[in-house]
Amino acid sequence: MRRWLVALVVTIIAVIAALMLIRAASQPASPQTAVSSLPRTPDGQPNLNGVWQVLTTASWDIQDHPAQKGVPAGQGVVEGNEIPYQPWALARKQENFKNRLTADLVEARGFLPGVPRIMYMPLPFQIVQTPKYLTMVYEYGHAVRVIYTDGTNHLEGPIEFWLGDSRGRWEGDTLVSDVIHFNGETWFDKAGNFHSEALHLVERFTLIGPDHINYEVTVEDPKVFTRPWKMSMPLYRRKEPNARILEYEAGALMEEEAEKPEEQIKSR
Prior knowledge:
Radius of gyration: 24 Å
Shape: globular
Structural class: alpha+beta
Number of domains: 2
Strand content: 15-25%
Order of helices and strands: HHEHHHEEEEEEEEHH
Distance between the termini: 90 Å
Largest sheet: 9 strands, mixed, barrel
Helix content: 25-40%
Number of helices: 7
């Protein structure tokens, strides 16, 4: 009788212990645990090194959009799916959309997409991180962008850069990049969403796991919009063993195509 009772008690304790382990395993990791498990550089910052790429359709249109010829359907990346254009600017955006095949300098001439658009082009980019700066090398046009994290101030303007002037700082485990000094030639997407040279961006890069960065950007342009607005999307680490940046020189490829005899183009 005693042996049977002891065996029953042991079985009950084992079942309770197993249930507690299952419950503990199903609980999400606490913020402290998640933070402590992040890969870090020797200076203690989250390690953003690697090859990254988005999986959104924001390059075609940053707002919700249906499928069209050459355009996959997609969910928008704009907070609230609303861009607060001034009335004149909304009319300009609509005109841009009508003329997008020739008015978008990326599509028509292979020019640089600008920031933030180059962040969500359907091509990878590589981050090289040091204590004083973070370099982004993009497959599109072999563009190179530097976010300085050494405490230096923005260059004195006005200056009109294609990719702006980026100055970063760490706020906890988030890299915050302040970007100014743009030209007014780039768009946010192929759908004609645009800005002026007064564009001001605040980007936030937050490593949320070894293979995912949450990218958030606040957009401000008092010449075009009635208020600041925000976009966000995940960046995914390319996991192939040989992942690397290849070559896509859009402008050179367009020039090469234009130089071909018309008969050769038609025969393809």
